[in-house]
Write a structure and sequence with these properties.
Layout lengths: L7 E5 L7 H11 L3 E6 L2 H11 L6 E4 L5 H14 L5 E4 L18 H27 L4 E7 L11 H21 L4 E8 L5 H4 L4 H11 L8 H12 L10 E4 L9
Parallel strand pairs: 1-2, 1-4, 2-3, 4-5, 5-6, 6-7
Helix pairs in contact: 1-8, 3-4, 4-5
The structure holds nicotinamide-adenine-dinucleotide.
């Protein structure tokens, strides 16, 4: 049903074994996809190479998504190694630490710029770079990861919530632009999961307890559950779905008081 054999995918946003993007990479590889993984800096290169060693014949390339030049170099590498791309998973997000612990009203212009650039604009830049490679394959699927902090206030999520709102809106505009080429663009809004990015948000562990107390399923979610939902959107099973935000959060979004 979620078969990805013969497909070639790019996964951006793996930092370590807890990364949601790594869970998606493992699930996609299990469904038969060949993958390209990126690392944003030399500091994380070793981690990504170690994880990639578990995959069959992966392509590994640098890409700081804040750099147009590195995105262009990545597209050239994919053109050379793959010739075409069937899917892109975008799991990159960043905001300066002080913006995730001080009151939102104190967000500096620079912290705002960086958060929106790395966490939202990067989807636009990457989509533009891979679209011609997807068109060559008759279409493709682009998937990003978001959080409900885009819609509602979560203490200390702050500028990341604003960035996720921009990201979700970008999903809809990109879906409209790229749909005629049979390229779909969607997001999964995941429940809170303890990862490196989450650790940067002050008081994150108290958010996890709220899911256990209040989500309809009375629990949080884990990376493999997000990855399973991703298989639907990346594979032909999701072929009529685009411009959507799929909530994979144990139902937390449905609750009011
Ligand atoms: N963990 C959660 O609770 C949760 C919930 C919903 C959505 N998300 C989203 O899921 C995505 C993945 O996050 P995660 O929780 O797996 O944490 P993570 O820290 O494993 O992943 C974040 C990734 O962003 C990458 N990144 C940061 N700056 C970059 C740059 N300039 N260039 C390229 N890559 C860069 C990091 O290297 C890292 O791999 C993020 O968009 C995050 O906002 C996370």
């Amino acid at each position: 049903m979620f078969d990805l054999s013969g497909k070639q995918g790019l996964i951006v946003g793996i930092a370590n074994k807890r990364s949601i993007a790594w869970a998606i990479a493992q699930a996609a590889a299990a469904q038969g996809a060949r993958l390209a993984l990126t690392y944003p800096s030399e500091r994380l290169e070793e981690n990504v190479r170690e994880l990639a060693a578990k995959l069959e014949n992966p392509v590994i390339a640098p890409c700081d998504v804040g750099s147009d030049e590195q995105i262009a170099d990545l597209a050239a590498t994919l053109d050379r190694e793959f010739g075409g791309v069937d899917f892109l998973v975008h799991g990159a997000a960043f905001a300066p630490a002080e913006a995730l612990s001080h009151p939102f009203v104190e967000t500096s212009r620079e912290a705002f710029r960086i958060a929106l650039d790395v966490s939202a604009y990067s989807l636009v830049g990457l989509a533009r770079a891979v679209a011609p490679l997807m068109a060559r394959r008759g279409g493709g699927s682009i998937l990003t990861l978001t959080y409900i902090g885009s819609q509602r206030v979560f203490t200390n999520y702050n500028v990341m919530g604003v960035a996720k709102a921009a990201l979700e809106s970008s999903v809809r505009y990109l879906a409209a632009d790229l749909g005629p080429q049979n390229i779909r663009v969607n997001a999964i809004s995941a429940g809170a999961i303890k990862t490196l990015a989450a650790a940067g948000i002050s008081g994150f562990s108290s958010i996890l307890q709220v899911y256990r107390d209040r989500a309809p399923l009375r629990r949080g979610v884990d990376q493999t559950e997000v990855a399973d939902a991703a298989m639907f959107l990346l594979s032909d099973a999701g072929r009529a779905v685009t411009g959507s935000i799929l909530m994979v959060d144990a139902g937390f979004h449905a609750m009011g008081l």
